[in-house]
Amino acid sequence: MSEVKERSVDLATQKILRKANEEDIVVAWDRFESMQPQCGFGELGICCRICNMGPCRIDPFGDGAQRGVCGANADTIVARNLARMIAAGAAAHSDHGRDVAHALLLSAQGKAGAYKIKDKAKLASLAGEYGIKVEGRKKEEIAEDLANKVLNEFGQQHGELRMALRAPKKRVELWRKLGIMPRGMDREIVEMMHRTNMGVGNDYKNILLHGMRAALSDGWGGSMLATELSDILFGTPQPIRGKSNLGVLAEDEVNVVVHGHEPTLSEVVVEASRDPEILSLIKEDGAKGINIAGICCTSNEILMRHGVPIAGNFLQQELALITGAVDLMMVDVQCLMPALSNVADCFHTKLITTSPKCKFPGVEHIEFKEEKAYEIAKDILKLAIENYKDRKKERVSIPKENEDLIAGFTAESVFSFLGGKYRATYRPLNDAIIAGRLRGAAGVVGCNNPNLKHNYAHIEMAKELIKNDVLVVTTGCSAIADAEAGLLQPEAAFKYAGKGLQEICETVGIPPILHVGSCVDNSRILITLTNVVNEGGLGEDISDLPVAGAAPEWMSEKAISIGFYFVASGVFTIFGTPHPILGSSNVTDLVCGGLEGMVGGKFAFEADPIKAAHLMIEHINKKREALKLKPMMYE
Ligand code: SF4
Ligand code: MSK
Fold first, then answer.
1. Where are the domains positioned within the chain?
2. C-alpha to C-alpha distance for 38 and 417, rounded to whole angstroms
3. Which residues line the pocket of ligand 1, CB cutoff 6 A?
4. Which ligand neighbours the alpha carbon of 197 most closely?
5. Which ligand is closest to the CA of 260, given by its number?
6. What class, spelled out in words, does domain 410-626 have in CATH?
7. For position 419, what pLDDT does the model report?
């Protein structure tokens, strides 16, 4: 087994990894090591098993002439595999958006009493974008029309996605010219699967062109709608305090951990945890209270809106259970390790699945239905309370580490912040960039992966960027990594940021790294970039802006989709480890080079976070030069 210090930079994580080792509990890092060496064909993307004449694999050391049984070469096989990853990632995000739209519809129809429309202003403005009459109508009537329009858009066959029209005009025109303006989310994803089916397209460029279209239907479609409709239903986040890391688990309270991505049930669980019946049951059971904490993006969703503490990110899901202090873990969809059930079995922890889309063999399933959300939430909490008495005190070990944080930034709030209370405008942000106080901005997002030291790349990349006066916005597990390192506090600016960024953070009272939400909330970054373009003075398109993106520790297909919609929107984007495409030099050259000429964005792969940060800074400097901006103020 590798040293715990090699596995993670986080002290709490290291402590629980030691406990896991002492108690002989296998975790992701152990399984990763036992998988070595991992399949080289898979890593290079040159294995094809999409028809029964295969599986076929191309010799990476051959002369390039080798073909699969059908005649597919490495370019075709690699491109098809990558395109299918995009489709799967886009499907996951978009299906999340669909579920929120469904909850909005039921709420509007009075069939889901647990949900009330919280942001009427956003409802009115989004309805306006969809051409729905707002004046003189009840919010429920507007919401019903909006939910129906949105739900229809998933399967829209022709035309253009409404949200994609929010992009800068020049970008929309480019997408139209390239034929990648997204129509409907389902349509683009289905077509991606069709195009990559045996015997359909074998031109790698054409396959990946549609890959971008499918990815755009995620970022400017499914994900954006997931964000907007969640804001309408659960409230648009405002800057809020919270805490992060395994130390948020409580010794003497019932610990309920919510994990996954969709906020529909966890929102109600938070509310139900304050129900008088639940509170009196807790007292009866001898606990001092009930502590809801989260893992992954479900956690980010309820942190952003309620300040609910975060217990950890992707690689900490098993570790939360190994503290021995979790009475119940409730999971919904995405990023859930099947191993959770084995780990839960080592403790008293009850693991509950809740989505019909996601069951674990042998694990209790309490199906979530929007119509009965509150009752279901209470039933789950009652199980947790009942289970508290079975907690074995002698097996409990909660690391003390937990950091304060500020989250809850959005495309709307952060910049009305920067503009001062009474002037909601992006002008101060644009002016800071133009004047050279800020070099630019970077989105650092995405997962953890045991193939890299847990949290290390997120934290070091973010620190290097802010040191160079690059404002960082973050989502998903990257945001949690930063939170655990104390970087989401205003004080972090004094410790780590360059002078220009420090001045801004000091004036406005914000951290140098802004937590803008869950993985679907990467759409908030797209809107922010668009607002910066629209404010003026920094070019006419997203590809003109001094900005860059990164997913330094990515693991999910969703990260591939996110990467592609950022690149297709004109953003230079770095992934820590390569996409599984290196088996085709043509596809690699396209993804890391040729795309720039087409859409203004491209990928780079760099595992060293400091080197990666400097590639981003170089790119930002290049864009500043092209815009003829002033030299940096403090250089
Ligand atoms: Fe082999 Fe072609 Fe079938 Fe793929 S599609 S498994 S390359 S025969
Ligand atoms: S949760 S997709 S591990 S960021 Fe959104 Fe984290 Fe990646 Fe899942």
1. 4-57, 74-234, 246-395, 410-626
2. 48
3. 48-51, 53-56, 68-70, 72, 77, 198
4. 1
5. 2
6. alpha beta
7. 64
* Class of domain 246-395 as given by CATH: alpha beta
CB of residue 28 inside a 6 A radius of ligand 2: no
- The model's pLDDT over 266-280, given as tens digits with 9 standing for 90+, comes to 999 999 999 999 999
Q: Please tell me the chain's helix, strand, coil percentages from 3-state DSSP, rounded to the nearest 5.
A: 50, 10, 40
Quick one: average pLDDT of 71-96? 98
Considering the domain delimited by 74-234, tell me its CATH architecture.
Up-down Bundle (1.20)
Q: Tell me, in angstroms, the distance from the centre of ligand 1 to residue 72's CA.
A: 7
pTM of structure: 0.97
Give the C-alpha separation, 183 to 174, whole Å: 15
Measured N-to-C along each axis, helices 169-178 and 204-217 cross at an angle, to the nearest 10 degrees, of 140
Q: Is the pLDDT of residue 552 over 60?
A: yes
Q: How far is the CA of 519 from the centre of ligand 2 (A)?
A: 6
Say if residues 577 and 453 touch (Cβ distance below 8 Å): no
226 alpha carbon, closest ligand: 2
Mutate to test the pocket of ligand 2, among 447, 474, 484 (most ligand atoms within 8 A of CB): 447
Mean pLDDT, rounded, for 549-566 = 98
Report the pLDDT averaged over residues 169-178.
98
Do the two domains 74-234 and 246-395 of this chain adopt the same fold?
no
Q: Determine which of 123-132, 333-342, 475-484, 505-514 has the lowest per-residue pLDDT on average.
A: 505-514
Q: Are strands 310-312 and 290-295 parallel, antiparallel or unpaired?
A: parallel
